[in-house]
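Team,

Forwarding the record for the chain on the shared tracking sheet. I've put the sequence and predicted structure together so nobody has to dig through attachments.
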Amino acid sequence: MLPDTILIESIREEHIESFHKALDTVSRERKYLTFLEAPPLEGVRSFVLDMIENAHPQVVAVVDAQVVGWCDIRRHPQPIHAHCGTLGMGIIPGYRDKGLGTRLIRAAVGQARERGFHRVELHVHADNLRAVALYEKVGFVREGVARDAVKIDGRYIDSIGMAVVFG
């Protein structure tokens, strides 16, 4: 399927089970996300419904009614940090390196800007060079490195903090 024919849209309730499956697929790769497997479906359902209810940006890439990628930005709950949001994203194998990441981030960050966010931040595993390059391409700037911040299967990985600030 051509990347430009893949639909990018705001998440809806009907996407939840498919999103859960995509989240689990990427999580079980054990190299990109904080999760090593997706939380239970009901936890993911609560998360998505909360994102929708509170107008936090969350977009999905959909092929044949199945979620193949996502990008979400969760606004920080404390008043002094409420101008900031944290970005999370993933794309299932087979749909990477097709420009979907750029499309997903631009859609979610565009929504964040429209909804009054001033800053969007993220943490990325330092060995995920493809993701670091993607984030830099769309305007994120490196702010620092947390050494040995992640431990997966006995291996420590640095985490790079990045952010984009809207002028």
